[in-house]
Amino acid sequence: MANEPAVSPERADAARNRRLLLAAAKSLIDSQGAAAVTMDAVARAAGVGKGTVFRRFGNRTGLMLALLDHSESDLQQAFLSGPEPLGPGAAPLDRLIAYGRARLKMTVDHLDILLEAGADQPDHLSHPVWAMSTMHVRMLLAELGFAGRLDVTAHAVQAPLMAVTVRHLLDVVGMSPSEIADDWESMVRRLVSGY
C-alpha cells in the first residue's frame, strides 16, 4: 500500500541485544527461578544497560512473554516442518508422542513463567498458541483413526502437559519430569490401542 509506512527490518545490534537478553533471562530462570528475573538482573547478565531491556520489552511482563513466544515459535516450527519424529513424515503415533514429550519439556523448562503469566487461566485455552496445539493434536488423533469432533479427546490428551498439572505432579505427587513423560506416553498408547 502506498500510504502505509514501510516496516523497517530489525537492526543487527537490536537483534543481537534481543538474543542476549532472552538468553540471559532464560539462564536466570534456569538457575534461580522466574522470581529472579528483574529488569536489572537481566541487563547485568546480558552485559547491557537497563534502558536497553526496557526499550526492547517495555516491562518485565513483556520480557517474560517474549521468552515464552520465542520458545513456542521454536516448538511450532519443529512440529510443522522439522525433522521426524516431531515433524512431518513420521507415523502419527510417533509424532503425537514426540509432540507430547516436547510440549512437556517446554512446560517444565518454563514452568515458573507459565504459572506466573497465568497460562492455565480459562482464557488460555482460547489463546492462539493453545488453539494451534489442540488443532495439531486433533489432526494426529484423526490420522490415528479417531472419529468425530475430537475436541474433548484432544484437550484430555494435553491436560497432563499444562503448567498447573505439571506443577502438581512435580510438587505434590513427587514425580520427576521423565516419570510424567513416561506415564503420559503410556496413557496415549493405551488410548490409541483401545480405540
UniProtKB/TrEMBL annotation:
PROSITE patterns: HTH_TETR_2 (PS50977). SUPFAM superfamilies: Homeodomain-like (SSF46689). The lineage of its organism: Bacteria, Bacillati, Actinomycetota, Actinomycetes, Mycobacteriales. The keyword DNA-binding applies. Keywords: DNA-binding. Coiled coil: none annotated. Pfam families: TetR_N. Residues 15-75 form the HTH tetR-type domain. Residues 38-57 bind DNA. It comes from Gordonia neofelifaecis NRRL B-59395. This is Regulatory protein TetR. InterPro entries: Homeodomain-like_sf, HTH-type_TetR-like_transc_reg, HTH_TetR. It comes from the Bacteria. One of its GO terms (molecular function) is DNA-binding transcription factor activity.
